[in-house]
Amino acid sequence: MNRIFNMKNIKTAAGVVGLYVVVQLLIMFNILSDYYQITLALICINIILAVSLNLITGFTGQFSLGHAGFMSIGAYSGALITINMTHEYSFFVGIAAGAFFAAVVGLLIGIPTLRLRGDYLAIATLGMGEIIKIIVLNLDFTGGAAGLSGIPQYTNWTWLFIFTAGTVIVIKNFINSSHGRACKSIREDEIASEAMGINTTKYKVLAFVIGAFCAGVAGALYSSYFYFIKPDMFGFLRSIDILVIVVIGGMGSIRGSIISAILLAVVSLYLQDFPEIRMILYSSILVIVMVVREKLKNGKFKFDGLPWKKPDKMRT
Amino acid sequence: MTEFLQQIVNGISLGSIYALIALGYTMVYGIIKLINFAHGDIYMIGAYVGFICITSMGLGFFPALIISMIFCAVLGVIIEKVAYKPLRNSSRISALITAIGISLLLEYVVMFFAKADVKAFPAVLPEKSRELFMGVKITDKQSILLVITIILMVLLQFIVKKTMMGKAMRAVSMDKDAAQLMGINVDRTISFTFILGSSLAGAAGVLVGAFYNSIDPFMGIMPGLKAFVAAVLGGIGIIPGALVGGFSIGVIETLISGYGNSLYKDAVAFAILILVLLIKPSGLFGKNIREKV
Questions:
Q1: What is the number of domains present in chain B?
Q2: Distance between CA B235 and CA A272 in Å, rounded?
Q3: pLDDT in tens, A111-124
């Protein structure tokens, strides 16, 4: 018990609850307008997506470009259940179903494709995302290209906060467990970790499924907050958006993902009327971060993402 | 039967576009092991350069084709020098993320200047059609497309197989360090590969513009990805493989939209990709290479 209730954890918990209470009060006294509340919801959803993609890409080293596909499965399952089931718990059933279906699809896709390496995996996951989008586009009960509207709005700040904090805690604990260390060893050197007796396929699939599960949760929250979804919302560009957050925050840094999700949401808020400029900025940052990082790597400075990223230390 | 053969003819002319783009992918992958995500966007820029040449400068189709190829070649080399060269020795993921960044950058820069709407490419090619045999028709557009594609491919094959630079390219793709020890200028060889690949993509862009008469900033994403699938299907890094892959994808896609559901035609390419990667990752023409520790 002492390990859980140590000073550091209590401080963190107090900070998390404090943050929740402050924002809740701001909302209650109408200081935060609806406009900012939407940004807040997007930040929470992006944090869930970015942290879960970071588990796959940043910690396990498997490059996935199909994260939006899992999000869309979660969004559609959640939406269909909350529309058709008028029960007071339908919101939770929707989220659970969304996460479950996303995880199942993640498992089915992960087992064959995770045998592939690096860039092949990226293209295969990209293809998977596109296939999911095309299937959703062609099914009858998903509303086709017109999308689904009239989804009951259950998501509010409280639930967004609980799920975001929950995802971050679960993934952080996963990474600090022995499973997480196995995942990191796969990222560092797959062959060496296999030689050390780590079942690499198992851990790659595990990370992939957990990532898909969280993306499903994010999708269900998204559909229930914005009460309207259509297949185009979950295309390739959404996956890239999530990837940009992860890369700018620093691959393999949860804190970085959270900060960059907030930062990029604020940037988007101000550049809302200029979507081209926003994307030009994002893509330039992506290239510059990668090139500068590589140039500094062998030099005097150590640079991984932005300064708040802590380098992973090897544990013995 | 006539309809089937007609679909095959249409498929081959579509496939020649994929083949042209796939060649660029396959050469770049063969030499620096990077999926050049920006390749599809170079093709898009080729279409826009052709559009500007024809509408604003009043040039004919062939001058526009040549100018567009030169412009794309220069652009490809600049991208290689600025973005890919610093990452040559880093992990594949970093290089891939950079390539995605470049791809988005090109798309949105074009969108910024040309706006997102679809532009009508002027009809520069004759619309007539001729009967080949048994009622199977081929339009003049399709024949021009095919002839130009074949000329470019023969030229490419000549450069790769018969010239010193082609020999250097093959050597670098086999073993970069050994090639360097033999006195080959690796940097220049890689730039030359980008020149070849990008100019082919530029040509494909102008051809598609003239063929379908419409261009937009995102036209490069789907054909780019499908061309990549074609390259993987034929065995990535292998030039004849890219040709066969491109034509096969074109034909399969046309048959699917002709006989099945045209809405699923984009999904088919990806399904093929996943199947190829699972059954024979080295592709149709590839050899199995053991991974060394």
A1: 1
A2: 43
A3: 887 777 667 788 88
- Looking at the fold, whether A9 and A73 belong to one and the same domain comes out as no
Q: State ipTM.
A: 0.80
A191 and B293 in contact by Cβ < 8 A?
Answer: yes
What is the pTM assigned to this prediction? 0.85
Which of B229, B263, B277 lies nearest to residue A116, judging by beta carbons? Answer: B277
| Residues on chain A touching B100 (C-beta within 8 angstroms) | 240, 243, 286
Report the pLDDT value the prediction gives residue A314, as an integer from 0 to 100. Answer: 45
Q: What is the pLDDT of residues B79-103, one digit of tens each?
A: 999 888 888 877 777 888 889 899 9
Cβ contacts (< 8 Å) between B273 and chain A: which residues? Answer: 123-124, 127
> Domain limits at A129?
33-234
Interface touch B93/A118, C-beta < 8 Å: yes
Residue A203 lies in a domain: yes
Q: Token match 């393999």: residue?
A: A252
